[in-house]
Amino acid sequence: MLIHTAPRRAAAVLGALLAGLLLVLTGCSTGGDGKGSSAGTHRPSATSTAGGRSSGDGAAPGWAKGLPTVPAGRLPAEARHTLKLIDAGGPFPYPKDGTVFGNYEKQLPKESRGYYHEYTVDTPGARNRGARRLITGKHHEFFYTDDHYKSFKAVLR
């Protein structure tokens, strides 16, 4: 039993060290909104591009892996509301919110199962959950789709 748990512990320690290094290298960014952060708030390690530009106008964070980007402030109001719910840890209006997103369409960077989670973004006039979602990554990455997983933008916060 010890043989199987030692590599897992080593991987967990290495992951924690890498996450700490990433925070130091990115300057412990709070997203540049001047509000700071509160306990329990999850934020990605990147800020929006200069002037709030999107879709490749400036340096995208490494975790975006070449995807177009969008500043959180430019998302639809319903998506910004969902971001606030995610930051607060809920409550979420849909039972599927927070469930594992499988990335079966392979539009997001390849990661192990359980890395991504999905949240519904309300669509005005939709009779069901609609096509809009926010996907979060284990390292506080955020991705937005408005076409039910056909395309994504990395959300800069």
TrEMBL record:
The keyword Cell cycle does not apply. Residues 32-67 are annotated as: Disordered. Keywords: Hydrolase, Nuclease. InterPro entries: N1-like, Ribonuclease/ribotoxin. Signal peptide: none annotated. Residues 45-60 have a biased composition (Low complexity). It comes from the Bacteria. This is Ribonuclease domain-containing protein.
